[in-house]
């Protein structure tokens, strides 16, 4: 019988083996120290403990939230200077659900500005450093979330994925990251990057904790019309037999990563799970299609940040309104945000709309159709999570934007299709983690949890350090 | 090659104003990005565009009038002048 960290924690409280006040005093000291070294949090909080939490399923369990998820009374900046000083008067639905179950928010985690990035280097509020090697990236855009997850046993992080922002940092930091089906988790209170692609998910060291948290945050929400009521089932009898590996998601991956990937897959053979290569040629178009859709939506979402209704205000009221808005936006947005606003505006312009935006939306449908066709034969589709291990910051500085976009070719396909996917740590190269990613059909998160539990029986992950122990 | 006139227009309608160095860099980046995206030109696709990845049904909230009670929250972080929200010049 496996006891998950969440169960272990609540058992300790129920049995009065853990003094919660002392625990949080010590944890807070650790977190201040960790943050000084790694910069995982854009806002580290003084936890608020209330007596009522001990009866709840997450009784006093620590969690963190990416800084684009609104938290009542707590500054929420989405990695952007344009939101400096924004204190939401309400909680996002996910925060409300977790708090109602007794979760304790320990901090808001660092991210790329509005989620625009693969390495969490486009952040206005500090760049998180990889816990395995401080000269390397945590991945992005949920970099802070993955970084802190790898150092805390009793904790989960709420992350957000638009094109791979959970799988990528989970892979680079050696933790588990689940991105659910689009619409399974309410986006109410999430600061939008691209509405048709954004998904709130969970990062943790434990697949069992991810299952528990998903059952809490899933479900339809009247405040988010794109959320859908499709119950998260706990069907433990489900059998996974066949996994498909698209050759388009293998080409271009570093050989040392492929070796670990296949060694991991081979271990499933003893459990009656086989894999074979398949081909989905349309996947080669997924990166441009994704960046067109995501930038188009981002450019419209970011139009509202003009320093009046949304975003920081300036006192330059003597300026004419166009000059006021332009100057403020210009000095508040980072370079990548500007690049995506311009790209998104371009692909939506009259004359280019059909060539880029509409074509990308049609491609999304084709990619969805191709995945569905394959899910008739295969229970899951797999690939490495990222084609490289976490790069060094000086290597990232030499990469051009288009080269960085192209590195997302493994995480974009499930994201553009709204398919649930799970990144699991599957091995190490020079002590740096490598992840593999499993993709399931829409609403089939149960299969991902099943494969994660199987892997949990076979693989013991390494962590750089462990803080927040109960003893 | 993106024409200068078009780049200038999208910068203007995006309400941005790039300094020369930033202008040249972003312009060059956009060219490389669009060149890479030209792989889509070879495609002829005859399906309906997918505005969402899963089927979304329009859900409406009930049409009840609810009074917004906490007006203080609305203007707490906004600069006001004699009870009006302050903004830049319009004339």
Give a quick rundown of the structure.
The complex is a heterodimer of chains A (471) and B (91). With 471 residues, chain A is an alpha/beta fold.
Overview of the structural elements:
The complex is a heterodimer of chains A (471) and B (91). Chain A is 36% helix and 15% strand. The longest helix of chain A is centred in the last third of the chain and has 22 residues. Chain A is globular and about 70 Å long. Helices cover 36% and strands 4% of the residues of chain B. Chain B has 3 helices and 2 strands; from the N terminus they run αααββ. Chain B has a two-stranded antiparallel sheet. The chains are: A alpha/beta (471), B mainly alpha (91).
The structure class of chain B reads: mainly alpha
Classify the helix fraction of chain A into a percent range.
Answer: 25-40%
Greatest interface (CB-CB under 8 A), with counts per chain: A-B, 72 and 50 residues
Molecular shape of chain A: globular
Rg of chain B to the nearest angstrom? 23 Å
Give the tally of β-strands of chain A. Answer: 13
Please compute the radius of gyration of chain A using only Cα atoms.
21 Å
Q: Enumerate how many helices of chain B there are, as a single number.
A: 3
Ranges of chain B where pLDDT stays below 50 over 5 or more residues in a row are: none
Mean of residue pLDDT values of chain A: 95
In whole angstroms, the N-to-C terminal distance of chain A is 22 Å
- Write the element-wise H/E pattern of chain A from the N-terminal end onward: HHEEHEEEHEHEEHEHEHHHHEHHHEEH
Share of residues in strands of chain A: 5-15%
Largest sheet of chain B: 2 strands, antiparallel
Please outline the major beta sheet of chain A: 11 strands, mixed
Count of helix runs of chain A: 15
